[in-house]
Structures are given as structure tokens and as C-alpha cells.
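Pasting as-is:
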Amino acid sequence: MLGLNKNDLTLLAIVAVLTLFAPFILNPFPADSAMAQFNAGYPDLMQRFIIFGIFAIGFNILFGLTGYLSFGHAAFLGVGSYAAVWMFKLLSYNVVPAIGLAIIVAGLFSVLIGYVSLRRSGIYFSILTLAFAQMSFALAYSVLSNPKFNLTNGETGLQVYKNDPQIFHGENMQDFPHFFGIYMNSTHTMNFGAWSFDFNAGYYLCAIVMILAFYLSIRIFRSPFGMMLRAIKSNQTRMSYTGLNPRPHTLAAFVISGMYAGLAGGLMAAMDPLAGAERMQWTASGEVVLMTILGGTGTLIGPVLGAGFIKYFENIFSKINDTILHQWFAFLPDGIEDFVVFIIHPFIGKGWHLTLGILFMLVVVFLPGGLVEGGQRLGKWIKSRGKSDDSSATTEPAE
């Protein structure tokens, strides 16, 4: 079915169910409870989970299959955002042509960067991609914001103004991105007792796109092309000795990965019609590397898990402050309460990076395969416990 084997089809179904029912899954605590701080079921955060999941899936096609570590993928993310906003400015707020142009422009840009960068491998390739990304950031931040040919609007960011052409934008239409009249900011809230669930049109557009992107990545992983990329990662020199030229395959993987990043950038602009040079910063490139490694390099679902994990910490743990901590530990005597808050304080709020760094270190040391390996170990442990319980139950006591 769909050209997938049973295991891959099951994995796709799991991703689809988790994605489509995320508003319920990510809101486990009542809205008025102290633990509501850990709810992540609001549209803006869920959209970030999905968009960065797409970004990480694409990056994993390059890094996970070929072993080529790019530190410049944020350039394609930013280019995709700029292309989408320009489509809003010139044509209309319809997200379909905007996302399409974002993918095309990012693909063309990745051909240029990949053709030069892939002349080298290893750390030299990584440095070249980082250099290209920083040059792109500098161009977007200053050079291309020149008033004579303002393509990026510099540090203010590119956005849509009233005097923009918008050829197909009707007078009675809202000034916000839409999918053939379905506006991305339209949200339906369902209250169920003490729980509140938000169903956002923009989120579900991103969710459907991610499911399709995940399905495409499965097909790439299982295709002869994917096997060729694995051979390049395993031993490129030996592959060259067989008479096969690895460069066209690595360039194709680089371009596909760049187009995924452009898709993510286009979706960012579709959710919020603003594109800034900060999306091209080296920190954004480093973030997708962390997502992929944390989730499980070379695995299918790992990058999605890693993206969700990091974005959750960024948006949830960073908002916890001393006031919330005092509410949690109010049951303790005053002296002990203050001491506990003092110990935890460096790991929350602005210090959430410290917590993430410790968790990342633990994962790398004890789970080299990332969160996916952790899930596999847990599954094996549960199965072994189940078998041991069954064997002990069927064993008759000796008389």
C-alpha cells in the first residue's frame, strides 16, 4: 500500500495520528491547573513543531544518508521565507504559489551552493556551507536592503504593505495568508470540562504538508537512490573504484534537502507573513543539526522527535520563572522552598539552554542513536518483561 512495506506504513500511520491529534495530545493538563504550564497545544507552538520537523526531515536526507554535515541549511530556510513573502507582495496572500516559489528558489539556490561546496568533503564541506550561509545572512541584512533594490528590508524584515501590487488580492479579502479562502489564523476552540483545545487552519495545513514530506522521505530512504547515498556514506572511495561517480548523487541529496528547508521557510511565512535575516543565522543551522542528532541520525522519525523536543524546551521551559517555581513548591517549609528554587533557577527561564545541553550530552553518551534508540531499548525491555512474566506464570511450582 502506497509503495511502503508494513513497518514503514505503520510508522507513517503513527506520525499521521500524532500529528492530526496533536491538539489533544499536547494539552494533557486542565487549563486552570498548575501543570498547565507544560501544555503545548496552542497553534503557534504546534506550527513550530511541524515546520522545524520538516526542516529536520530534509536535513536528515543529506546528513543521515550521505554523512555530509552542512552548517548552512538556514540559508535555504531564509531564502524560502523571502520568496514566499515576495509572492504575497506581488500576487496575493494565497499560500499555494508562495510555498511553491519558496521550494523552487531554495532548490535553485541549493544547486549553486551545493555545486561549489561538494567539491570538498568532511570538515571542509561543513565550513564551506557555513561560509555561504553567513554570506547570505550578510547580503540579506545589509547589501540587499539597499533602497535602490530593496529585496530584504534589512533588519526590519520583509513584509507586505498596503501599496504593494497584490494583483489577485480582492478588496473584501483579509490581509492575511489563506488557502483558497481558508485563513491560516482561523481557529476553532473546543472546551471540554476544564480542558481547552484549539484547532487552527494553519496548523492543519502544515500537518498535511509534513505527512506528505515524511512519506516522501520514506520513499527516498527505501529507493535505489537512497541505497546509493548510504553507499557514499559507508565508503565513498570504494564506490569510486567501482566506476560510479558519487557527486551527482550527493548534489541531488543536497538539493532535495535544500528544497525541504525552503518548504519550511515558505510555511513560516505562510503562518506569519514576515521574513527576516535572522532565519539565516548560523544558530538556526546549528539548531537543525542538534534536532537530527538528538532524535536519531539516519532514522526516519528521529528528526521529527528531535525538532519537537528542542522546540518544546525552547518555548515551555524558557517561560518557567521563580514565581512559578514558588507556586509549585509552596507546600515546603520556607527555607527549603527557597533552597529548592535556588537550585533549579539556573536551569529554567533564560538558562533553559543549560538544561537542553545536559540532556543532549546524556543522549549522546548513553543513547548514540538518539531518542529513537531510547524508544527501541524501552520497547525491548517491555517485551522482555512481558515474556518473563508469561514464562513465570506458566511454570508450575515444583512439588
